[in-house]
Amino acid sequence: MNIAVVGAQWGDEGKGKIVDLLAQRFSIVARYQGGHNAGHTVHVGGRKFILRLIPSGILHAGVTCVIGNGVVVDLKALFEEVDELATAGIAVNGRLLVSDRAHVILPYHRDLDRLSEASLGARMIGTTSRGIGPAYEDKAGRRGLRVCDLADGAALEELVRDGVARRNRLVQDEALRWEDVLSQARELGARLRPWVSDVSVALTKAMADGRSILFEGAQGTMLDLDHGTYPYVTSSNATVGGACTGLGVGPRSVHAVLGIAKAYTTRVGEGPFPSELLGAEGEALRAKGHEFGAVTGRPRRCGWFDAVQVRHAVRVNGLDAVVITKMDVLDGLAAVPICVGYRVGDEVCDEFPADLRRLQRCTPVLESMPGWPAATAGAKDFRGLPPEARAYVERLEELIGVPVLLISTGAGRDDTIVRNEPLAAAWFGSALSLA
Ligand code: IMP
To answer: Which among 421, 419, 408, 336 is positioned nearest to 378, based on CA atoms?
Structure first.
């Protein structure tokens, strides 16, 4: 059985831990979009790993990891990650495939990202400054450099010269020399060569051989280029459709879709956030949840769980179930509000609006649930949770209309509750062991 794991909010939902937890059940973990703007944090054996490009499955010896054509690859960032893993004793060689159709992020994309943000002024997106948007712009503009071009001397030189010339025209300086960009691309391209593969062919063959795939999304539904809070989004499809286009597999290859959502909501960067808490309550969630970006260190904006927004994620991804993460961060609150609708003028709407102006006028309709004085931190059993915490999870299930499969109560692999054992057994063949 192949499962897609997608972010159901604005990213940073804790996908890294969940993919790591489930990876041992799969032969392959395949990443389908985004780039090193992602930061998937995984705690294993007292060590903390932040994976940006390589799927979190790499931490399990028998798992093959795939970077699909839908990903934009910064080769320098990729090899920094490979080297960091090697230092920790984790060999990537022979376990990583990179699509020959993936687009490459070059140093000028980073400069263009900064330039684009500066030119937007007050409308800036608050990007991660990694060159993600400009690399996808080049892809859509049909002037991008793909992994397969790295092996062709003449094509590589032409694309790099054109790219650097365009950058120098736009940035209005000559700080970047095409010769330097070319020699670095050549060197890193040669190092990448053994891992380059036609990923669509490899995955199709693997499925025919009965191997299972976990499709790993980065960012989250509300940062999706089509279904998120446009224009305050990333430049790829983080929703499940991206798994098919970003890896070259058909929709029937995805047998189930699992959304990951925090027990509350966070977002980094600019853009609308209807259930945001601007005062002390937001700061308290940020401090308790360590809500600072894994990649950029920026403070994350915090707010209550937004059922309107998560229902949108359920619909656009066809989610079969969700995982609720960071439940323990809500421990000790007197009350835990949930956003159940948006008030716009005299109306209450329960669908997530497309129109940014309308969205900015939305105020949350809050339903207050009683808090729980006892800790859920580290809990491993649903029945052992305080009754108010159980009631909170049950209410979330009612509001979003899909079951909660797992609940995460801490950073470690085993700080996890299997909330829905029959579903876990149906998906994973036997009761899901979290040890
Ligand atoms: P970009 O992906 O760097 O172009 O940034 C676009 C928007 O997506 C910004 O608001 C970023 O903060 C946000 N973003 C990108 N990647 C992530 C992520 O992995 N987690 C959370 N937010 C992200």
So the answer is: 408
